[in-house]
Amino acid sequence: MRKFFSITLFLVTIRAACRRLLRQPMVFRVETTTKSADGAASYKKQHRAEQLLFLYIILAVYLMSHFPATAKAEATSLTRPNPLHGIHAPVGFRWTDNDRATLASFHNQQGEAGAPGLVVALNVDMTAANNSAQLRMEQDLHAYQAQGSQILVRMYPQRFPGGIQDAPDPAHNTVSGSADDAADDILRFLQEQETRSGWHFTNIIPGNEMNIEWPNQSYDQNLLYWTSNDDPRKYQAINQFMLELFAAWKQRVAQPDGRRFADVNLFFPALAQDGAPPHFGGFYFYAGDQTAGSKYDLLRSAIETLGHFSWHNYWRPGHAWEDRAIANFPDWLKRDLNGQGTATLPGYITESGWSPQAMAIAQPDALAQVWKRLSFLYWPSPQGKRDWFTNTQDDVLAGKRFEDDLQYFLENCSGAAYETAASAQGVAVWLAASNGGFPEAAGLWGKSESSRWLHNYAAWNR
Fold first, then answer.
1. Contact between 390 and 356 (Cβ < 8 Å)
2. What is the pLDDT averaged over residues 132-146?
3. Rounded to an integer, what distance in angstroms lies between the CA atom of residue 432 and that of residue 56?
4. SS3 of 349, please?
5. CA dist list (Å): 268 to 107, 252, 303
6. How far apart are CA 245 and CA 243, in angstroms?
7. Which stretches within 151-231 are classed as H helix?
8. pLDDT tens digit string along 317-360?
9. Partners of 352 in the beta sheet?
């Protein structure tokens, strides 16, 4: 409103000035010895027209530099996608026409279809382009980013200190290597992306669920000094590796070939949840049945040094409030995520959904499902929606549809560190699509098959 009155006042001022110019005589010299009366009149009209033109030019410059830019910014703020309405991009090197159409159909708060508010994707899937337009996934993600989406790239496979140096191999989710190797992997990915596209993404997650994906006791012929997922020494090793990776990355971007990537943020990777009641969403050490400290306490220095944080939150159908992960964080981490601690952490949930274990069918039920399928001569394809021994996020479990349970989780549970409902800064739901894996979660499969839950979730005006 203030901008409207400012523009109106400016126009009124210009109009008054023009009227004065048209009414009042012009002040100029006429040399009677060289100019006739007709020439003087012509000169007067020309001079007055030039002054009016000058005023109109001032008006045009003012409007172009202020009014359109303001309107554009206001329009953008109205249509900007919500990071709470996010998705994990397809995995398995697929980016089909169905994938592209579905991820471009996410509604914002005004009900306009566009990009998801947050997308998490694997670096190895960036060049997938098995669609009719032959556009790479990274090209569409870059277009989403221009609409206001947050794009996070997770490195796959991840490195861990196994005592030898492996070549990156997408057939394995974890390969051995030093923190320097991990920094080189990130730099190589970004340099290749720059070469292909002329730009790079700036939010990198250098690992995933290290507490369960890093091996224990031995790797190849090397003995590891931690023995289990509950060995405190494993979390000390994770902390040290992440600190070394951060230092190695800072060294890389200080060098001539790395300065282009000084704007890249490294997010501390998510840990896997405990997955057992009464601390389903927890990250604890245990003494018998009692908790004996948070695993995150041993990771604090690395988390606060990286300055960006990610976590996962799966829950049992109908138990979104009881199974919220953030409620099980130590107090210092809750305060950091709320901007009240020693560090202010931007933090996103990079995987969320119904727990795969909670969707698994007990053996007698599984056998009944097999019999049912045989009796109707129905056999799912390898890329089919259902596995014989699991339910999916399209089933009704505990009286809940997944998309309804998900909406409740996003709005009330995702950021509720204490007993007050709150939403997280951003959430990516697992999973948009795959090439046959994760049948319990995948919203799209095959070439054109799609799930009810993903269709309804994308159409949510949030």
1. yes
2. 98
3. 54
4. strand
5. 29, 18, 6
6. 5
7. 179-197, 210-213
8. 999 999 999 999 999 999 999 988 788 899 999 999 999 999 98
9. 313
- DSSP states along 391-449: --TTS-BTTB-HHHHHHHIIIIITT-SSSS----S-BEES-SB-SSS-TTT-SEETTTE
DSSP string, 93-148: S---HHHHHHHT-EE-TTS-EE--SEEEEEGGGTT---STT---HHHHHHHHHHHT
CA–CA gap between residue 119 and residue 109 (Å, rounded): 17
pLDDT-derived band at 364, boundaries 50, 70, 90? low
Contact 196, 188 (CB under 8 A): no
Q: Residue 271 belongs to what H/E stretch?
A: none
Are the beta carbons of 285 and 234 closer than 8 angstroms?
Answer: no
Q: What is the pLDDT of residues 406-447, one digit of tens each?
A: 999 999 999 999 999 999 999 999 999 999 899 999 999 888
Instruction: Give me 417's structure tokens.
Output: 């560190």
Backbone Cα Rg of the chain: 30
